[in-house]
Amino acid sequence: MLCVGRLGGFGARAAALPPRWAGQGSLQAGIRARRVSTSWSPVGAAFNVKPQGSRLDLFGERRGLFGVPELSAPEGFHIAQEKALRKTELLVDRACSTPPGPQTVLIFDELSDSLCRVADLADFVKIAHPEPAFREAAEEACRSIGTMVEKLNTNVDLYQSLQKLLADKNLVDSLDPETRRVAELFLFDFEISGIHLDQEKRKRAVDLNVKILDLSSTFLTGTNFPNKIEKHLLPEHIRHNFTSAGDHIIIDGLHAEAPDDLVREAAYKIFLYPNAGQLKCLEELLSSRDLLAKLVGYSTFSHRALQGTIAKNPETVMQFLEKLSDKLSERTLKDFEMIREMKMKLNPQNSEVMPWDPPYYSGVIRAERYNIEPSLYCPFFSLGACMEGLNILLNRLLGISLYAEQPAKGEVWSEDVRKLAVVHESEGLLGYIYCDFFQRADKPHQDCHFTIRGGRLKEDGDYQLPVVVLMLNLPRSSRSSPTLLTPGMMENLFHEMGHAMHSMLGRTRYQHVTGTRCPTDFAEVPSILMEYFANDYRVVNQFARHYQTGQPLPKNMVSRLCESKKVCAAADMQLQVFYAALDQIYHGKHPLRNSTTDILKETQEKFYGLPYVPNTAWQLRFSHLVGYGAKYYSYLMSRAVASMVWKECFLQDPFNRAAGERYRKEMLAHGGGREPMLMVEAVMTVLIQSCPHRTNMHRHKQAVRWLRDDLV
After folding, report:
1. For 250, which of 243, 266, 666, 670 could close a Cys bridge (C-beta 3.0–4.6 Å)?
2. If you write DSSP's letter for every residue of 52-112 in order, what string do you get?
3. Is the Cα dihedral 18, 526, 624, 422 positive or negative?
4. Tally of domains in the chain
5. 245 shares its domain with 144
């Protein structure tokens, strides 16, 4: 999952693509290669040993989170935000007084960078830091910067300084393509924020945006909040599956993998029982988004949110989802019948398939058909081995190596966080990845990529290196073994590393379009593509070794694992279609024709097929409504594109260096500085031009036509 910045305009743009290669010439050639460090150590070993953490430096100077001096204490967030706000005032004055030209765009980008360097960092700290004081200070910083962003997006003088540039044809023609696109993106952010409105309505737009930020934060917190029930209301024989608190049982999740049908049913009904406060918050959030969209000139929030994406509008999204649903329907029915038969076999008293059944019974079917019990695979997937596997793949494909680096005292928020230096064989140091991989109390149960600092070319010619965090929830090592991953955990690790490489690989001139700051329905392409590598035996064979014996993972076990993923795959994808359709309806025409729960019931029956369970409200746990509002379909569309890229570029040889370089140059290198479909088509066009076989050439041309016509 990509953690999407919630700021628009001068804040982080939604989603991400790495830096632009700037024509692959001038910018890249002008950046000095960073030297290697003698303090780096091999990545695999670093993850299979206990962390040494800050204990090596008990008396050293405290550096502050991510090396930011102010953030050695929670109060530092106030200092950092005030410094950013003061710099913002100076840059606004500078932008308004500078004659229109390329310098205007550079000033706007520096303005964006100064705000994002506080907001992006705070956006991570407010949910991940173990100390409440840090989380609260980061939350306040997010709100303060967010409010400033919304004010800037409705600043008429600032808008006019950019409009003068883009209204002058001679000046526009003199801009390089990336600078022109970044200028247009900044202008677009003004327009969707209501810059064309009168002063009173602009203030209303700012107020609505701030309200949406607050509601989003409240809703997000509520999606993870546990429910409780009096003990005597639960059958005694299943109580031990849950946490007790006095006279109550705490239900903090769906327990989807529990083998007891009654445990899953109880968890589903209790965890999804509607909370009146959370329901009110969702209704206000959706209503506020709709009011904002209408205020700035869009018929729905979805129309506003999808500007600039691959899909472009909600009509295209619904057409895509309905077409996909039609193609899946027959296979989905077969999957549900297969699940029903397995349930009847194990529980003859009640064979009706309910929403809490597919995750568990599909796993049972996979295990029975292919003997893929996770415990058989885990010993081959130690965390260190998987990290070394990523290192091997990235080195052979892109000339990238990962090295562990000892963080300074105070630089990380937990002693088990690892810091990785990302180094290119000829370009040197590209950036840093902080790996927050292990479970701890109060840590969100989600796998995410966070941008902490975007890359950009600075005025002095140096490059501001990107910094990101990968957050997973892996078990800790034990006395007898290192951290061992299930196949699913290993695939998630590769997925998130795809986001990180998206952020690291490339060198955009502007941070506003760096890394994952690209249209959301393209941002998941690099991460989903990495899942294909994670499921290819030629890749897995490079690193999957038994942590005790060193024995490689047998090829037939990998084959069985890959085959097993086809089991109930249609039903799994149909569920995602249902979520995406629900998201579109919630952000479509308002007022909604029914309550959010009634709409959930109707949409579930139309797009999924399993019955709605009375007195449940799954939508109140749908956390993606915050970061991916009106854009949840992005996972499905990105998967379609990633599948095509895999088949056309890497299926024949997953270590093809020429294909890897082409993938970086034509796709990863541009960040949000180029239209997504142009990037994908560029990869395919190069394939066509270099293809010696007429049959393959015909297939590649068909793929390009499919991209242009059928996908959207």
Report:
1. 243
2. -GGGGGTTSPP--GGG-GGGGSTTHHHHHHHHHHHHHHHHHHHHHHSPSSHHHHHHHHHHH
3. negative
4. 3
5. no
Q: What is the pLDDT of residue 42?
A: 78
Would you say residue 363 has pLDDT above 60? yes
Asked if 236 and 107 sit in the same domain, the reply is: no
Nearest to 298 by CA among 53, 589, 553, 625: 589
Statement to judge: residues 120 and 240 lie in one domain: no
* Catalytic hit among 110, 496, 531, 666: 496
pLDDT for residue 442: 83
Structural domain for 78, as ranges: 65-196
Report if pTM > 0.85: yes
Which residue, chain included where needed, has tokens 């967030």? 77
Identify residue 188 by its one-letter amino acid code.
Answer: F
Q: What letters, b where the CB count within 10 A reaches 16 and e where it falls short, cover 259-286?
A: eebebbbbbbbbbbebbeebbebbebbb
Q: Do 441 and 501 belong together in one domain?
A: yes
82 and 186 in a single domain? The answer is yes
Please give, one letter per residue, the 3-state secondary structure of 334-354.
HHHHHHHHHHHHHCCCCCCCC
**Is 496 in the active site?**
yes
Confidence band for 41, pLDDT divided at 50, 70 and 90: low
**What are the tens digits of pLDDT across the range 49-71?**
765 544 445 455 668 999 999 99
Angle between helices 76-97 and 132-152 (to 10 degrees): 10
Residue 706 has pLDDT above 80, yes or no: no
CB atoms within 10 A of CB 55: 9
Residue the block writes with tokens 């040197």: 428
In angstroms, rounded to a whole number, what is the distance separating the alpha carbons of residues 501 and 461?
Answer: 23
φ and ψ at residue 250, rounded to 5 degrees: -100, 125
Q: Pull the structure tokens for residue 78.
A: 């106030």
Same domain? 178 vs 75: yes
Are residues 238 and 189 located together in one domain of the fold? no
Q: With helix as H, strand as E and coil as C, how does 372-398 read?
A: CCHHHHHHHCEHHHHHHHHHHHHHHHH
Whole-number percent of the chain with pLDDT over 70: 89
Question: Helices 358-370 and 569-586 sit at what angle, rounded to 10 degrees?
Answer: 160
Phi and psi at 214, nearest 5°, equal -65, -45
Is residue 562 within 8 A of residue 533, CB to CB? The reply is no
Q: Residues 367, 534, 127, 418: is their CA dihedral positive or negative?
A: positive
Q: Are 398 and 507 within one domain?
A: yes
Strands (E), 392-512: 400-405, 418-424, 428-438, 448-453, 456-457, 463-464, 467-474
What digits encode the pLDDT tens for the residues 663-699? 999 999 898 999 888 888 887 776 556 554 445 555 5
CATH number (domain holding residue 145) = 1.20.1050.40
Domain membership flag for residue 685: no
